[in-house]
UniProtKB/TrEMBL annotation:
Gene3D superfamilies: Medium-chain alcohol dehydrogenases, catalytic domain, NAD(P)-binding Rossmann-like Domain. The lineage of its organism: Bacteria, Pseudomonadati, Rhodothermota, Rhodothermia, Rhodothermales. Residues 10-310 form the Enoyl reductase (ER) domain. One of its GO terms (molecular function) is oxidoreductase activity. It comes from the Bacteria. PANTHER family: ZINC-TYPE ALCOHOL DEHYDROGENASE-LIKE PROTEIN C16A3.02C. Pfam families: ADH_N (PF08240), ADH_zinc_N_2 (PF13602). This is Enoyl reductase (ER) domain-containing protein.
Length: 316
């Protein structure tokens, strides 16, 4: 099969399309012919050597943790999906190799492909939506009528977080640049704030602050929160780790680091939201498989709102 791989850590130019062995299918794995794969910051971090090799392994290797595609074959313990079924799913964050014509997808981490979504949209939904849902509901304890700040609301996770928070009944305040305020309002934000024009840290009374952008540290967010509130970030740091370990003995708001974990039932729930039209995937750009270097350069530079994807098989 054809796959995008790299043989040394480095800039986007290290990515290249080459022949690779087809994945081996056993137990409850699904062999999926990939239609498209979502692009995420973790991909560029792994390629650039910015993630511990203990987690990622060493090159040569591929990239990609979310896909949309068609089941070709199932392992002997897989029973829910058959040949020809269209599915979406995630793979382990540091080990996924979805930039390829075929992937081995654990059946428990798959969900039906919402038929109203294009291949790039379907492939771009799982990781960002799971990140947002797990941060807001599992880590943040979001409930109806909670006042929620989504800081960095126009990116892949941010656009999902605004929609999910609103659908769960939250009162959503979302920050973005001026050119993206109308977008985040259209996604369900009750109020959209230009972070360049207003110091949002002067506000208070929030039940939950979700720092998607990674630019609102806990020290600044804490006065914004009610005493029983929660601060969730997508950025891990020594301070975050220390606080999360010690916080049971410390008064005040809860802090948590949230990184999406594969969760088939949650992904199925999300898929029904998108299938019903209650939520949508905001897309920035799509790229062909052999444009992976340009795609990574785009991700690492200024870019539009929403997600990017690699199109692997246009026939699906």
């Amino acid at each position: 099969m054809r796959a995008v791989r790299f043989h040394d850590f480095g800039p986007p130019s290290v990515l290249r399309v080459e022949e690779a062995p087809d994945p081996e299918i056993e137990d409850d794995l699904l062999l999926v012919r990939v239609a498209a794969t979502g692009l995420n910051p973790i991909d560029t971090d792994i390629r650039g050597g910015r993630v511990s090799g203990v987690l990622t392994g060493t090159p040569p290797r591929g990239l990609g943790v979310e896909v949309a595609g068609t089941v070709v074959r199932s392992g002997p313990l897989a029973s829910r999906y058959r040949e020809g079924d269209r599915v979406i799913g995630t793979m382990p964050t540091f080990k996924g190799e979805g930039y390829a014509e075929f992937v081995a997808l654990p059946e428990e981490d798959a969900a039906p492909w919402p038929q109203n979504l294009s291949a790039p949209e379907a492939a771009s939904m799982p990781l960002a939506a799971l990140t947002a849902l797990q941060a807001l509901r599992a880590k943040g304890g979001l409930r109806a009528r909670h006042r929620v700040l989504i800081h960095g609301a126009s990116g892949g996770v941010g656009t999902m977080a605004v929609q999910i928070a609103a659908l769960l009944g939250g009162e959503v305040v979302a920050t973005a640049s001026a050119e993206h305020l109308d977008l985040v309002r259209s996604l369900g934000a009750h109020e959209a704030v230009d972070y360049r024009a207003e110091d949002v840290t002067r506000r208070d009374g929030f039940d939950l602050v979700f720092d998607v952008a990674g630019t609102l540290p806990f020290g600044l967010a804490r006065p914004m929160l009610r005493s029983a509130g929660a601060y969730i970030t997508t950025q891990v740091s020594p301070g975050v780790v220390t606080r999360t370990v010690l916080q049971k003995a410390m008064p005040g708001p809860v802090m948590a680091y949230s990184q999406a974990a594969p969760d088939g039932p949650a992904l199925e729930w999300l898929a029904t939201l998108f299938a019903s039209g209650a939520a949508r995937v905001v897309m920035d750009r799509t790229f062909a498989m052999d444009e992976a270097p340009q795609a990574h350069a785009h991700l690492e530079g200024p870019h539009g709102p929403g997600k990017c994807a690699l199109i692997v098989d246009e026939s699906q």
